[in-house]
Design brief:
There is one protein chain. 43% of the residues lie in helices and 20% in strands. It has ten helices and nine strands. The longest helix has 26 residues.
Length: 258
C-alpha cells in the first residue's frame, strides 16, 4: 500500500539544510521504527552536501513513514516549512500537521506528545522553552539573552502574552494549516510571528486566544551552530519593521469589524 493511501494522526514537516552528517548518524530511526501513526515529511532546502541523497535513503528504508521533497533552490526555513506543509496537505491523509527543527533540539517523541493537547477548541499548540523544575533547557547564554530581547519586542508587536514565539516546535489541525500557510512569508526566519498574526487575523484576538496553547517543553537541547547567518542580524530589524506594519494593519481591520 502506498503512503498516499494511508492515514496518519500527524504529519511532521522537517526542513533540512546540509544535514547529511546528522542523517547518517541514524538520529531519526529510533522514532520511525516505533509504532506511531506519524508521517515525516523532510524538505531539503537546496543543500550543498548529500542531504537529499540521505533523505531518499531514509524514504526507501521506511516507505510508509517517510517522504522527501526538495526545493529547487535555497529558500530559507519559512518557505521550506510552507512548501512542506502544502505538499503534504495536497498529497497525504492526516489529521494534524506541524514542523520541527532538523537538529531535534526538541525530540520527535516530545513533538508527538503535543498531539494530545489538540482537542476541543484548541487547534494550535506550540512548544515553549520555559525553565521549570524537572525540565532540561540547554541554551547558550548569548542566544538566550538575544532571544528574550527579541521575544519581548515580538510580544509587543503581536499584543499577545506569549513567552516563546520562536521555538521551532509547532502543531496545527489540518484545517487551520490550510488557511495559515497559503501565502508566502515576509521573513525567512521570523515567520513564526507571522503565523501568530495570521491566526489572530483569522479569528480575532479574543477567539484566537481560545484556539492556541503554549506548552512548556520537558527537554530542549541546543545542538550546535545556528543555520542563521550572522549577517541576518541586520535584516532581522527590517523584518520586524515589516511584520510590525502588517500586525498593526491587522489589528485595525479587526477593530473595524467589531
Amino acid at each position: 500500500m502506498g503512503v498516499s493511501n494511508l492515514s496518519y494522526k500527524v504529519c511532521i514537516v522537517i526542513p533540512c539544510y546540509n544535514e547529511a552528517k546528522e542523517l547518517k548518524n541514524n538520529v531519526y530511526d529510533n522514532f520511525i521504527v516505533k509504532d506511531t501513526d506519524s508521517l515525516i515529511c523532510f524538505i531539503d532546502d537546496g543543500s550543498s552536501d548529500d542531504t537529499y541523497s540521505e533523505l531518499q535513503n531514509l524514504e526507501k528504508k521506511y516507505p510508509n513513514k517517510v517522504i522527501s521533497y526538495k526545493n529547487k533552490k535555497n529558500l530559507g526555513k519559512a518557505e521550506s516549512v510552507r512548501n512542506g506543509i502544502n505538499y503534504a496537505i495536497t498529497n497525504f491523509n492526516f489529521k494534524l500537521i506541524g514542523y520541527l527543527d532538523a537538529d531535534l533540539a526538541t525530540s520527535l517523541e516530545e513533538f508527538y506528545s503535543l498531539t494530545n493537547y489538540i482537542k476541543g477548541n484548541i487547534s494550535f499548540v506550540f512548544g515553549s522553552r520555559i525553565m521549570k523544575i524537572g525540565s532540561t533547557i540547554e541554551r547558550k547564554n548569548s542566544r538566550f539573552f538575544i532571544g528574550r530581547f527579541i521575544a519581548t519586542i515580538i510580544s509587543r508587536i503581536l499584543d499577545l502574552k506569549v513567552y516563546d514565539t520562536q521555538c521551532g516546535c509547532k502543531l496545527f489541525t489540518k484545517e487551520l494549516a490550510l488557511q495559515i500557510f497559503t501565502k508566502p512569508f515576509i521573513s525567512r526566519w521570523l515567520f513564526d510571528v507571522e503565523i501568530f498574526n495570521r491566526i489572530v487575523t483569522l479569528y480575532g484576538k479574543e477567539k484566537a486566544l481560545t484556539k492556541m496553547l503554549e506548552i512548556p517543553l520537558s527537554r530542549w537541547v541546543d545542538k550546535g551552530d545556528s543555520k542563521v547567518k550572522t549577517s541576518y542580524f541586520f535584516q532581522l530589524w527590517l523584518d520586524l519593521y515589516k511584520i510590525n506594519k502588517i500586525c498593526k494593519a491587522s489589528l485595525k481591520v479587526n477593530k473595524l469589524e467589531k
